[in-house]
């Protein structure tokens, strides 16, 4: 049985995530803003409509339509959207959000993740999620960070496992998105699991883990195994 069942907790509700700026070595996360980010995101996403396939909105036919969507996201209730700005370019190349925020129980989901082609499979993208986890666990004191995605979205499932989220199962016929059924894969990371994940990610993200051409010397999977956890995706 889990060792935390029926254990008394010294627990108090935590603050909701705000429109915060988070800075790392490779990327900055800043509050999504149509005036600042719409044009850059249009350039980063244009011609790649497939990037919207797993989201509930998009794609958008014009920059003006995307701008209106970003305006709605930046003013959304119950979610905080952050633009992902790689340091190498200084321009927004994607976004992510804190959503399904439950301050009473210390649970929050990272979701609505959209990465432009140039941002995918980069250290900047990995560090962006790392910074969000730091903010949740260390700045705000949450107990549980969730990642949910369409069960058919294999790249998202691999990314969740790679970053240290634990697969919890499939919620069948969970949603209807864009007229199609969505079975949802659920992943989570707990506060007690975070220190080992953080250590592995810090080692992997360290500048000396990459050569002059940006190639990693150790993979995250190799570093994670030393910390006692696997980056393999759940079935």
Structural descriptors:
235 residues, alpha+beta, Aminopeptidase, eight-stranded mixed sheet, 8 strands, globular
Topology:
Layout: E1 22-23, E2 27-31, H1 34-45, H2 63-74, E3 79-86, E4 94-102, E5 107-115, H3 123-139, E6 144-150, H4 154-162, E7 166-177, E8 180-190, H5 194-205, H6 220-226
Parallel strand pairs: 5-6
Antiparallel strand pairs: 1-2, 2-3, 3-4, 4-5, 6-8, 7-8
Helix pairs in contact: 1-2, 3-5, 5-6
Can you give a write-up of this model?
- The structure is a single chain.
- The chain is an alpha+beta fold.
- The protein has a single domain, classed as Gcn5-related N-acetyltransferase (GNAT) (Aminopeptidase, 3-Layer(aba) Sandwich), CATH 3.40.630.30.
- It is 29% helix and 27% strand.
- It is built from six helices and eight strands.
- Helix 5 (194-205) crosses helix 6.
- The model has no long low-confidence stretch (mean pLDDT 94).
What is this entry, summarized?
This protein is of the alpha+beta class and 235 residues long.
Low confidence ranges: none
Radius of gyration: 18 Å
Under the CATH scheme, which architecture would be assigned? 3-Layer(aba) Sandwich
Report, as a whole number of angstroms, the end-to-end distance: 22 Å
How confident overall, as mean pLDDT? 94
CATH superfamily membership:
Gcn5-related N-acetyltransferase (GNAT)
Q: Domain count, please report it.
A: 1
